[in-house]
Amino acid sequence: MSDAVFMVMMAMFGGAIRVSTPFLLVALGETLTEKTGRINLGLEGNLVLGAMVAYATSYSTGSPWLGVLAAAGTGTVLSAGHGWICKLPKVNDIAVGIAFMTLGTGLAFFFGKPFIQPTAPRLDAIELGNWSSNPQVQQALKINPLFFVGLALAVVLWWMLKNTRWGLIIRMTGDNAAAARAMGISVDRVRLVATAAGGSLAGIAGAFLSLYYPGSWNESLSSGQGLMAVALVIFARWSPIRCVWAALLFGASGALGPALQSIGISKGYYFFNAAPYILTLIIMVLSARSQKAAHEVPGELSIVK
Amino acid sequence: MTKIFKTFRAPSLETLHMSKSFGRNKALDDVSLKVAAGSFHALLGENGAGKSTLVKCMMGFYEADAGQMMIDGQEIRIHSPRDAQALGIGMVYQHFTLVPCLTAAENLVISRRDIPMVINWKSERQRLDAFMETMPFRVRLDAQVSTLSAGEKQKLEIIKLLYLDQRFLILDEPTSVLTPAEADEILGVLGEMALRREVTVLMISHKFREVKAFCDSFTVLRRGRFVGAGDARRVNAAEMSSMMIGDVGMRPPATRLKTIQDGPKLELRGVSTLGDEGRRVVSDLSLKLCSGEILGIAGVSGNGQSALIEVLSGQRPLSGGEIKINGAPFEPTRRNFDRFKVFGLPEEPMRNAVVPRMSVAENIAFRSFDKPPVLKRFGLMSSARMRQRGMELIQQFNIHTSSPDAPIETLSGGNVQRTVLARELSGEVDILIVANPCFGLDFASVADIRGKIMECRNRGAAVLLVSEDLDEIFEMSDKISVMSAGKISDPVSTLATDAMRIGKQIAGQTDEIVAGPQAE
Amino acid sequence: MSLPSASSVARPHRKPRLDPRSLALIEASVIPMGALLASALIFSLFLLMLGKDPIRFFSLVWTGGVASSFSIQNTLQRAAPLILTGLAFAVPARIGMTLLGAEGALVLGGLASALIAIPMMLGGWPVWLGLPIMALTAMAVGGAWVGLAGWLRHYRGVNETISSLLLTYIAVAIMNFLVEGVFRDPGSTNKASTMPLGPDWRVGDIPGTSVHWGLATGLIIAALLWVLMERTTFGFSARIAGGNLRAAQAQGLPVGRLAVASCAIAGACAGLAGFFEVAAVHGQANASLAAQYGFTGILVAFLARQNPLAVVPVAFLFGALAASGGLIQRRMEMPDATMLVLQGIIFVTLLTSESLYGRLPFLSVSQAGDRT
C-alpha cells in the first residue's frame, strides 16, 4: 500500500510540474497585464491559438522551439489587438477579452483542422532523474525547460517591477493612471505593451500544451487554463513569485485525477477533472474579502471592485 | 544629473492678457496675474471663476487662446506639463497624485525624468536621505503611500516638487483634506521658505483664514475675469469676499422660522461601523435629533462623516449600536424610508444619488416608481405618469434640461443637485439626511439648495447636516456637533458658540474651558 | 481618434431635432448594424486572403439560412436555444453583471430534466404532467446554478464573470461524471448518454413545421422578460442598481436580492434551453449538450444591446449562420470553425463600435442643459 502512496506522490509531483507550467506562464503574462491596470480575459484564446500555431510550425519546420517562438509571436499580435481596442473610450476590457477568446479559439480551430492528424516533433524534457533507478522517479523528474523558463521569468518579473524604470512605470500606471498621465507617461501605450507581452507568454503556454503535455493538437486541448490563470493571479495577489506557488498548487490539483488513475483508481476521474475549477472557486471565495488582497490590488483594475 | 540641493532661486511669474474659451464659454477673459519672486500669493474666486483654468494653462494642460506668460521677466511657452516641469513650475492638486502602492521613496524616484533603466536602490537611498536632511518636513521614505495620513501625503507631494527642483509651486486648495493643525504646519513652513526666497507659492484657496494668516498678496477672479489684486495683509476678509461675489451682493441667509422642537425623532446609540480597509471609522457614536431642527456636524473630511451617512442610508452595514426612529428600531430599507418619511441628499450626487445614464424624469421617479400613481397593477409602471410627474417637478424646482428624457449626466452639477432635491423634498419629509449639499456648486444653486433645506426644517423635519464647510454649518444649523476620528462631540447651540471654538474642536483640541478670543 | 473632453462643452446650443429617446434608439440600431456590416467586410477580406469567394459564402448563408422553407425551419430550430441563452446574458447585464454561466446552466438543466424523467417514465406517469415537471426542474437547477454566481458576487464579493465561468466548467465536469458513471445508459455505446426518453416523452414540433416548441416558448419568454425589464418595478430597480449601485442602496432597494433574482432568471432561461435540447432535440443528455449555445448567447445579447426583444432577431441571424454552416462546409470545403471565426470577428468589431456611442455627430443628444 505504501508503494501505491509513493506512486501517487511521485505521479502527483511530476504531474504538478507538468500541469502547472502553462498555468504559470499564463499567470505571469496576466500579472504583467493586470499590473498596468487592465485585465485580459482573452488569454484563453492566445493559449489555444498558440498551441495550434506552435504545433503547425513544429510540424512544418521540424523544430519545436521555432514553434514556441511562433506561438509567442501569435500571442503578442492577438493581445496587441486587445490592448489597442481597450484604449478606445467606453470599451469594456472584460467583454473585449471574451471576444478575443472567441476569435482566438475560432482561428485556431479554423486553421488547425489539417494538423489534428499528423504528428509534430515535440519539445524534449530535461531528464533530471537519471541518478535514480526507480522509473517513477525518473518519470517524475523529466522536466520541460519551459518550466524553468517560467521560474526564471517569475524572478525576473519580480525584480523588474521593483528595480527598474519600466517596473515603476508599470506599477504607477496600474495604480494611479491620472498620476502617470500627469507625468507625461502614455498610459495607453504602457498598457498596450504590457498586454502584448503578457499575450506572448500565454502563447508560449499554448505551445507547451501542444508540444509537450499532453503533446498533440486537438480542439479540446485546453481545459480553460487561460481563464483559470486570471483567478490564479488574484489568488497570488499580483506577485510573480506567489504565482509560482499558486500555479504549482493548481498543477497538483489538476494532476490528482491522472495520478489516481495511474494506480488504477479511475472511478470519479471526470469528477477529479473538476478539481482545479472547484479549487479556484473556493480560493476566490476565500480571498475576495481579504484585506491583504485589497491592499495589493492595482488601483485601476476593473475586476476587483 | 544628481539631485543635490542647489542654490535656492524663487522665480517670479506673470501672465498677461490670458484668454481661454471652451466653445462659447469664455472660461478666461484677458486675465493678467502677477506673482512676485518669493511671495505667497492667493488666487481667489467662486467656483467657476476660472481659477482652475488659469493654473491649468500655466501648467500646460490647456493651451491658452491668447496671452503671454513670463518667468523672471522672460517670455516662455508651455505646451505640456513636461514643459512646465522643466521650467520649474510644479503643482499640488486637490487630489493626491502619489501612487498608493509605491513607497514614498519609489514615488520620489519615479517622478524624476532621468530615472535610470535599472535603479540602484542603495545609492538612490543615500541621495534621498541626504536630500531629506535639507527638507523642512519628515516623511517615512520606506512607508507605502497608502499607509500615510492625509497630512503626510500632502507633505510628500510638496517634497516631490522640491525634489524635482520646482521652485514655483501652485497649490490647488491644498488643505481641503487636512486638519487645521496639519494645514497650519504645512502652510507655515512654505511661508517661511517663501520668505527666505527659496520658493514662490501661488495658492488657490477658499479659506480666508488661511489666506489672511499665510499669504502676502492675492488676486481675485470672477466669471473668468480679473477683478482685483492687493496686499493680503491689509485687505480684510469681508472685502475679499465682496470682490469674489461681486455686484450680486451678499446672499441673504435662508429664513429660519420658529419651530416647535420635539422628539427625539432620530436617535443613534453607540453606532459603530468599519471602513473599506476594515478599520473602525465610526466608533460608539450617539446622537439625538428633534423635529424642526437642523443638527450640523462639522469636521474635516475623512473623520467618519461619510461612513456615518452611508450607515444611515443603507450603503454600509452597522457593526455595532442601534438606530431608532420615533423610539422604534430602524433599518435602512426602502419600506422603512417610506414609512418614516426618511429622505436624503447624499454628497457627490453623481456617485450616490443618481444614475448618470438614466433620464431626468426617471431619476426623479426613484422614490415614487413603486407607488401609485406610477405603479399600476401587477407591478407594472406607467411611464407616461412618470414622465408627467417629472415634467411638473422640473418646472417647480427650476431644473434646466433640454428634455425630461435627457440623460442626467448631460446636466450641470447644480441641476443634478436640484433634480435630487425635487425627488427627495417634493413630498412630506420627517427626517432629512444631508451631506455636503453645496460642494462645488455655483452661487445661485447654493442659495436655492440651502433655502429648500431650511424650508424643510421650517415645516418640521428633523435635519442632519454633515458639512465640511463651516460657513454652511453656521448658516444652517440650530445645534452643532463636531466629528473627529470617528467620534462626535456633544451638540451645542449655534448661538452659544462661534467658529473659533468649533475650529479648535475640529483640530482635535477639547473645548473644556471657555477660552478667551485669540488674536489671529 | 481621441477627442478632448472639451468638445462636449464646445457644442453650440441647438435644439435636437428628435427627442433624446428616439435618438438613443436610432443610435442603438445604427451602430450595431454598422458593426455587422464592418464585420462582413473584414470577414470577406479574410476569405479573399484564403482564396475563397466571399460572395459565394454569403449567398450560401442565404441559401442555407433563409432561402427555402426547409432552411428557414433549420434556422428557427437553432435560433430557439440562442434566444434563451441570449436572454440569459441580457437580463443580468441590465443590473451590471457580466455572466458567462449560461452554458453551464444549459448543460445542468438539460441533464437534470433527463434524469428526473427516468423515474417518471418508469413509474408510468402521464406525459402532460411529466414534461412540465422536467421543464421546471431544468429551470430550477439552471436558476440555482447561476443564482449562486449572483449570490457569491453580492454577498461574498467574488467577481461574477470568473465565478460563472468556473461554474460552467464544473457543470460540464459534473455532467461528464454522471453520464459516464452512475447514470450511463448501458445501451449508449459510442457516446455515453443517459437513458433515452420514450417517443411520447419528446416535445413535438409546432404544427405544420419541423420547429420544436422551444421556439414559441423562447418568443413568449423574450416578450415577458421585456415587459419585466422595461415596464415593471423589478426592471426599473434593476436598472437603477445596474447604473449606480450606491444610488440604489441609498434608495433602500434590495440590491442583493435583485442581483440574485436576475441571475436566477438568467439561469432558468438557460436551463429551459437545456430542457428543449434534451426533450426536443437529443432525446437524452450527453456531451452534445455543451454545444456552445451558452457562449454564442453572449454575442447575441451584446448585439441586441441587452434588449430582450432585440435578442429575438439577432438569435435568428445567428441561427441562420449556424444553419448554413453545414452547407458551407460541404460546398466551400471550409472547416466548421469558420462560423466561430466569423463570430469572433463580429464580437470584436461590435465591442470596438461601442466607443462610437455619443460620438456620431448627426445623432448627438445636444448638451442643451444650462452649461454656460
TrEMBL record, chain A:
Keywords: Cell membrane, Membrane, Transmembrane, Transmembrane helix. One of its GO terms (cellular component) is plasma membrane. One of its GO terms (molecular function) is transmembrane transporter activity. The chain crosses the membrane at residues 6-29, 41-59, 65-85, 94-112, 143-161, 192-214, 220-236, 243-263, 269-288. It comes from the Bacteria. It is found in: Cell membrane. Its main location: membrane. Coiled coil: none annotated. It is a multi-pass membrane protein. This is Nucleoside ABC transporter membrane protein. It comes from Celeribacter baekdonensis.
TrEMBL record, chain B:
It comes from the Bacteria. Gene3D superfamilies: P-loop containing nucleotide triphosphate hydrolases. The keyword ATP-binding applies. One of its GO terms (molecular function) is ATP hydrolysis activity. InterPro entries: AAA+_ATPase (IPR003593), ABC_carbohydrate_import_ATPase (IPR050107), ABC_transporter-like_ATP-bd (IPR003439), ABC_transporter-like_CS (IPR017871), P-loop_NTPase (IPR027417). Keywords: ATP-binding, Nucleotide-binding, Sugar transport, Transport. Residues 13-248, 266-510 form the ABC transporter domain. Pfam families: ABC_tran (PF00005). The keyword S-adenosyl-L-methionine does not apply. This is Simple sugar transport system ATP-binding protein.
TrEMBL record, chain C:
CDD domains: TM_PBP1_transp_TpRbsC_like (cd06580). It is a multi-pass membrane protein. GO terms for molecular function: transmembrane transporter activity. GO terms for cellular component: plasma membrane. Signal peptide: none annotated. It holds the Pfam family BPD_transp_2. The chain crosses the membrane at residues 23-48, 104-122, 128-152, 164-183, 211-229, 255-276, 309-328, 340-357. Coiled coil: none annotated. It is found in: Cell membrane. Keywords: Cell membrane, Membrane, Transmembrane, Transmembrane helix. It comes from the Bacteria. This is Nucleoside ABC transporter membrane protein. It comes from Celeribacter baekdonensis. The lineage of its organism: Bacteria, Pseudomonadati, Pseudomonadota, Alphaproteobacteria, Rhodobacterales.
